[in-house]
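User: Continuing from earlier, I have the next pair ready.

Assistant: Great, send them over.

User: Here they are, in order.

Assistant: Folding the first of the pair now:
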Amino acid sequence: MTNNLLTRKSLLCLFLSGLPMVASAQEEAESALNSGDTAWMIVATVLVLFMTLPGLALFYGGLVRSKNVLSVLVQCLVIASVMSILWIIYGFSFAVTEGNAFIGGGSEVFLKGTTVDTLEGTIPKSVFIMFQMTFAIITPALIIGAFAERMKFSAVMIFTSLWFTLSYLPVWHMAWNGDGLFAGWGVEDFAGGTVVHINAGIAGLLACIMVGPRRGYGKVIMAPHSVPMTVIGACMLWVGWFGFNAGSAVTADGTAGMAMLVTQVATAAAVLGWLAVESIISGKPTAVGAATGAVAGLVAITPASGSCGPMGALLIGVASGVVCYFCATTLKRALGYDDSLDVFGVHGVGGIVGAVLTGVCMAPALGGSGGDDFNMVSQVVVQVKSILVTILWSGVVSAVVLAALKATIGLRASESDEERGLDQTAHSESAYEH
């Protein structure tokens, strides 16, 4: 009896002594969740979604003719819906999970294993999934500006879905997964120079060439129907881009703060650079020029926003404003392609300028984050390698998918439908009386 009593007391003491260890483990698990980081990332996620709905929709919608404005708005809205579903079914898994150098695995299809308690660093994994979903939404939506006013709605939806699967997800994995090709090279792409802008810009270039120019392109005036709408959309993009760049830190820290600062500096510099060149060449600065220059600066600072300082941001901003101006005007006219809303000239070229200059602006002498052993030449080389791979990857995927669609369902609206406008012919609606 005495021995049994002693045994019970010993077990009780052992149990009670273990309680602090259990409590400590629970506290440690709870402390991994940072409410400040979580709050910031929820805000950043909303800001990035705001970039597409309604920012990009209004920016693009104002640039097309009145008979096609609803078609652009509908395409942005439906692409947001389609990409949201594809992201949770398989997109997140094949982009984010471990796999090979080019693509992830299928271990988290349908977000398998994600619960209310699952964390990604210091934030709920659900918030991280949603934040990355907003990137998956805006990237294919960017492409529609290249073939606006002439591509069939069904072709737009199928093309963007296949391109998302075959180009966006692999380039995401290559750049942002630890075992990805670009990550292994040491490429710096903080918020999506290759993943988003070069990727989408090249797809837009291939698409506008393969679909063909708008009927009457170069012969009739195709002026924007609402410049105020475009400027408002550009301003929304500017505000939302703070979530895009500063949110890519995935924490509320100094890197996020600096990303916000350099985003503002580069964008302002790009507006002034674009307008300076436009004033010299055309005689007057324009509202569309200011809005487009702002987007060019936002694009170019994206890959460098986590590694450059204010001086580097000034350089990137001015360079992107000037270079993108010439590519969206002189180069496009010289080569004769009809990139309706300058997706390649702004996003493709701006992304290239930003990705290359990221390797320059990481230099400590320019306020960048490169350490004492930073080698500018080596960094620029790996940046260029990632650019070339992205161009090749997106170009091949886009060409194959577009060719397949052209041979099956067809790419563009009929001549009569294009003449009447896609608002009426694709959606049986009209934003304005004709």
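And the other member of the pair:
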Amino acid sequence: MPIYEYFCHDCRRRVSLLWRSFADLEAKQPACPRCGGSRLTRLISRVAVLRSEESRLDDLADPSALAGLDENDPKSLARWMRKMSQEMGEDLGEEFDEVIDRLEAGQSPEEIEEAMPDLGAGMDMGGEDFGVM
């Protein structure tokens, strides 16, 4: 069962579609699972490399990981956040993706916090509810 990644031109998101067979892939028109749009472009998928948690944490602790980070440049913050999320190897959710998209568009963290007042609401951090700081 092949899984392919697509870019949806309607909702501007990267989505993954699971096809039951290669025949289905050729016979059916793909549709975005988020918005139902049909304007999809197939992407070349990233290669996954299995790494130990220790190896990932070592990479995160490396001071060179901060090279090129400019805390006053939203696009620089977005690149760093995307890199760190990839190192973690976990999907951090749609809210995280939206924050990165907004940073890449040039919005400052303050503008994002103002536009998304419920950002981080409901996150469980040791029994307490924390918003963005």
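Worth noting for the second one:
The chain has two domains: 3-42, 53-121. The mean pLDDT is 80.
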